[in-house]
Amino acid sequence: MPDPYLVLFVADTATDGHADALRAAARRVPRAGFFDDVEGGELRTVGTYVRAREPEDGLALLREVAAISRALGVRFEVQHVEVVLGFLEDGVPDATLAARLGDIPEPL
Questions:
Q1: Which of 7, 23, 29, 60 is most enclosed, with most CB atoms within 10 A?
Q2: Is the distance from CB of 101 to CB of 60 less than 8 angstroms?
Q3: How confident is the model over 27-56, as a mean pLDDT?
């Protein structure tokens, strides 16, 4: 069985600004990675990921992405082992994500 990952990606139209912010976030979180399909045009996929047996194991990355979501006013889809857990919008988890993870504290 492949390693489980927590994956967060821009759920709206992704821009270079989103890519820059996510790349920086991935650098701040140990063992996190970054992806950007720049040739996707309007369907560009930009996101970040970290190996996580359980979604809670990726809270450091979730906090970073929540801060980006809040600062840039962008919506992120959150997945674990390719199952959608919910969305972050303006830094706040939707009801589905909050039911799974609770509040996501701001980074220190």
A1: 7
A2: no
A3: 91
